[in-house]
Amino acid sequence: MTAARAGHRSLKQRLAAGERLHGALLRLPSETLVEMAGVAGLDYVVIDCEHGPADMTVLQHHLTAAAAQGIDVLVRVGESEPALALRCLDLGAAGLIHPHVDSAQDARRAVAAARYPPLGTRGFATYSRAGRFGAVSATDHLTAADETLVVAMIETARACAAAEDIASTPGVDAVLVGPADLAVDCAFPGQDVLDGLTATVHRATGEAGRAVMTIVSDAEGARAAEQAGAQLVLHNMAHVLMDTFRSLVPPRSAEDNRRR
Question: pTM score, two decimals?
Fold first, then answer.
């Protein structure tokens, strides 16, 4: 988290105020998409460094574009990657999404990677982009870092069973169910089973006083997520863009398809 900009409230502050925030999940490196998300009025973007490229130079360009539009950036890091987490935060990410959090111990490690001692193990430096290249005091830098958002991803049946312990871990701000990995872990059960597991996680998250983040693929899914109580609605832009592209393709006859 960079030093606070005048009049800019952090995602953590906005969640505490009860706001519902909408963001875009970007797996395709594109500063223009980040800018467009800001111009459109979204609250945050998620840059995926787990399934997308984890190039720090490109990430810095994305963060710079986001700052110009006043939009916050969360970064999804890989599993158990504290070094990557450190670099993302030093570049000015507003928070981190940690995948494959299966237990309270995993959640504590995720928090530790995002917080300075004594709460965590993040290495301290004020000369990074997050510290405005040394232009802010150590005290101000520490204060800004307190606003770092930590999101724990629950993606297995084991994690669902430990949802209460994960969500109530000090320092965890939000919980996100990863539907694809959860389906794989459970050997692709019926949708009713997945919905039941997700509801259990969301209930535990709410009872712990944490925010629910939900990935959606369209406006209808966003409305459903809001009605279910999600405070962080995350639009999967790969899905949105593919649906948009498909809608632009005119109907073709069998003969047209053979000619292609």
Answer: 0.93
CA dist., res. 255 & res. 117, Å (int): 67
Tokens representing residue 5 in the block = 């900009």
Q: Given phi > 0 = left and psi -120 to 50 = alpha, else beta, which region is 205?
A: alpha
Looking from the CA of 132 toward its CB, the CA atoms found within 13 Å total 14
Give the model confidence (pLDDT) of 151-181 as tens digits.
999 999 999 999 999 999 999 999 999 999 9
CA 140 to chain centroid: 25
- Set 8, 22, 51, 98: catalytic member: 51
205 is written with which tokens? 């998250």
Distance CA 29, CA 180 (A): 22
Residue 51 annotated in active site: yes
Q: Concatenated DSSP letters for 142-188?
A: HHHHTT-EEEEEE-SHHHHHTHHHHHTSTT--EEEE-HHHHHHHTTS
Instruction: Print burial letters for 212-247: b (CB count within 10 Å at least 16), e (below 16).
Output: bbbbbeeeebbeebeeeebbbbbbbbeebeeeeeee
